[in-house]
Amino acid sequence: MKVLFISNNWADAHQQTRLHGLTQSGFIMTCLAVFRNYYPVKYPLLPISLGEIAHAHYAKRSRIYWRLFIQLWKNADYNDCVYVYGFDLLLTTVIYKTFSRQKIRIIYEIPDIRELFFAENIAGKLIRKIEQIIIPHIDQLVVTSPEFVSEYFTKHRKICVKHYLVIENKVHSGQLPEDTFVNTPMNCFNRKIRIGYFGVLRCKNSLNCLISLAEKNQFEIILRGIFMPDTSPFEEKIKNSRNIFYYGPYQVPEHLRMIYNKVDIVWGAYPFSKNETGNHLWARTNRFYESLFFKKPIILQKGTADADKARQLGSIALEIDMKNEDQVIRDLSTMITPDYLKSASALMHDITENHYQITTEYKNLVRCLQQKKS
Q1: Residue 59, number of CB atoms within 10 A of its CB
Q2: Distance CA 260, CA 258 (A)
Q3: Closest CA to 270 of 166, 172, 199, 167
Q4: pLDDT at 325 over 70
Q5: Rg of the chain (C-alpha set)
Q6: Strand locations in the chain (E)
Q7: What is the rounded CA–CA span in Å between residue 8 and residue 304?
Q8: pLDDT digits (tens, 9 = 90+) for 261-312
Q9: Mean pLDDT of 32-60
């Protein structure tokens, strides 16, 4: 089955993982990609470039949309599947389908719901109106969190989604190097406890909390990933800290075992928001599943989907509320002990693999697409 894969960020680890999974499932892939200043990426399949953009610079994307329209005209054959990331690229694809009258089938994946979809300004209202029109006509919606459908589309937006599939950000064990499955036991009784914060380092509240914890001289903080424009000043701020270590970007999945085996507990909280509703409550982080895989206890934001799931699995996570950073510092300074880490890690060994590893998700996706084809 032929799939035209449209990436709004070619270097995004999640999208690269999905692309690999689709390829391994037997799909014949052609890729159209937008490039950004992001992680280094190694993938044998060379995409057709749609151009390069900076984060959140929506007004400068008209050339991207035009190039996508042209490439769809050149590459999208009758009855092909188009797997697309990014609502703006989805809209362009729907416009192409309407004008070309091609019977392409559109699969739209939502890894996160951007803040613009909750904004009360004119742009927010407009994009929600377009969303209300387009979503019911998507052939297959893929979401990384079940709450995106139950809470966002059904309860919050009152949009009926007929065909959707949940593929959580679980670990793709088949993509991991063999040595990944060897976890190194940690002994933190005779040294400072190490807290790891990995991925896109975009949360100011998280970084403030971690800096405060480092200043207490009780913990060491290990940072891996990339800073975003809003958090880039932190890179300079932490340079002179004796208990914070920033080791730059990393590659997924090649470096996962190395970075997780260097820490005792993982900062898994999604970027904090004071809003009562939004993506921060429903999104499921890669760090949650990776922490389960590597048997590392987790620190999670109270009231989120990750925290709710962790509570169902046992006492494997510490819940915090970043509305009060001072209280977070006091609580974690008391709760994170060698004895707690040992007991929480032991509990994680009893959690079944289906909670954190991909099992039948791609088979289900193939079956959905084949049923629609017939």
Answers
A1: 6
A2: 6
A3: 199
A4: yes
A5: 21
A6: 2-7, 28-35, 48-52, 81-85, 105-110, 140-143, 164-166, 193-201, 219-227, 244-246, 265-267, 298-301, 317-320
A7: 26
A8: 999 999 999 899 999 899 999 999 999 999 999 999 999 999 999 999 999 9
A9: 77
SS3 assignment, position 286: helix
Q: Give how far Cα 122 sits from Cα of 58, 90, 249, Å.
A: 15, 20, 37
The three-point CA angle 350-310-216 to 5° equals: 105
Q: Name 31's Cβ contacts closer than 8 Å, sequence gap at least 6.
A: 4, 5, 6, 7, 10, 19, 45, 46, 47, 48
Write out 85-110 in H/E/C secondary structure: ECHHHHHHHHHHHHHHCCCCEEEEEE
Q: Are the CB atoms for 84 and 90 separated by under 8 Å?
A: yes
Torsion of CA 314, 170, 39, 127, to 10 degrees: -100
Judge if the upstream peptide bond of residue 253 is cis by omega within 30 degrees of 0: yes
Length of the chain: 374
Provide the 3-class DSSP secondary structure of residue 165.
strand
Other Cβ atoms less than 10 A from the Cβ of 74: the count is: 10
Rounded Cα distance, 67 and 237, in Å: 40
**Cα–Cα dist 206/219, whole Å:** 15
Entry pTM:
0.91
Residue 7, beta-bridge partner list: 33
Nearest CA to 350 among 305, 314, 318? 314
C-alpha 218: how far from chain center: 30
- Measured CA distances, 145 to 14, 113, 151, 292 (Å): 14, 11, 10, 17
Nearest CA-CA partner of 156 in 118, 109, 123, 110: 118
- Interatomic CA distance for residues 28 and 170, integer angstroms: 23
Provide CB contacts within 8 A for 74, sequence distance 6+: none
